[in-house]
Automatic annotation (TrEMBL):
It comes from the Bacteria. Residues 122-395 form the Fumarylacetoacetase-like C-terminal domain. PANTHER family: FUMARYLACETOACETASE. Its cofactor is Mg(2+); Ca(2+). This is fumarylacetoacetase. The keyword Metal-binding applies. The active site is at residue 130. The lineage of its organism: Bacteria, Pseudomonadati, Pseudomonadota, Alphaproteobacteria, Rhodobacterales. Its EC number is 3.7.1.2. It comes from Pacificibacter marinus. Substrate binds at residues 125, 139, 236, 240, 346.
Amino acid sequence: MTLIKSWVTSANDADHPFPLNNLPYGVFSIGDDEPRCGVAIGDMILDMPAAQDAGLLGFGDAFDVPYWNDLMDMGPVAWTTLRARLTDLLAEGSKDQTTATPFLVPQSVATLHMPLAVSEYTDFYAGMQHAKNMGAILRGSPDLPANWLHIPVGYNGRASSVVVSGTDIHRPNGQMKAPDADMPSFGPTKRLDIELELGAIVGTGCDMGTPITVDQADEMIFGYVLLNDWSARDIQGWEYQPLGPFQGKAFGTTISPWIVTAEALSPFRAPTPVREKQLLPYLNSTKDGLYDIELEVLMQPAGAETATSLSKTNYNRMYYSASEQLCHHAVGGCGMSSGDLLGSGTISGPTPDEYGSLMEKSWAGREPFKLDTGETRSFIEDGDTLTLRGAARGDGYTIAFGDCTTTILPAHKFPV
Ligand SMILES: O=C(O)/C=C/C(=O)CC(=O)CC(=O)O
Ligand SMILES: [Ca+2]
Ligand SMILES: [Mg+2]
């Protein structure tokens, strides 16, 4: 696959995040206008309801709403048809260039919103290096849990606190207990952390009681976003046994603003690694389930001119794919819906410069790391801005996600 040239010329740079090969789906507003669906192309956004009203798309009124769920619900044939139509419309030499030009608005003047209504959110634990690191840090041994090589381990999270990039998050208050203390205490977390993840968006659901194969699950996935699974390690450490994370991860999950479709990412498919234990047959698949997506974590303290790059890794390092996770999720009878969000699990490579959480980077505070400003960090301080980036690199073009950025504000005073 090579670059498909667009008459929106900014889209034709090899490093531009939004070439015609990408066409990611977002929700935007200008000034006080109502948020509506838009497609990123180069430095511009195609106003979807306006293009539809002008007869350029032929898709009914799926776009005059502040989310992409209506299109997602229509299923893979509709997804492919729309993408083909948009590609024709925006390609160099399109007969509709003059008609479509007024429906492009500069990204620089737009506010981006949540691209979908998240129906439910599940987070997995599918990065082997991360699981080994967390075991070593928290439980004194890098040995994987007995189930790990057989099950994509996960927990049900909260859809209510999934927010879009650019939304500030307050340091959470919660209950924690220092190992040497007699009693727990309540207050702002002292161990605020990120988790670098990829979020898979379920486009078409499946009914309760209807198991699906991994290949069917693959067809149900509409696209992907970057996902930061904010974690308060001290709250988590006190609450997590025996039922898993609760308040330590419920205060916020940030996603990037553009849904990069599975179709746009298809040239970058990558295999899951060789299985250390053969998976049970229900988890078999015929397709490569991962993607070659370069990922980066950056941190910028308040007042600093630039951000420090903390980690670089790749989504192709995961052990389980989103389609395996989705199959496992539904196999016992759990219905899945359009707008379900599945977190990949923290993505960490083998060395500290590939670790996807600060817990690992600072080894629970035992080995603080340096920022370009000269400061050191173990966890996040108030005023720090954290950014996740992701890009798949093709022959003369890039498919990127747009930054997933959050600034951390001080904790609310509680009790007041
Ligand atoms: O190993 C643990 O006790 C905790 C692990 C996590 O907090 C990670 C988690 O949320 C799952 C993941 O992102 O991989
Ligand atoms: Ca997580
Ligand atoms: Mg959450």
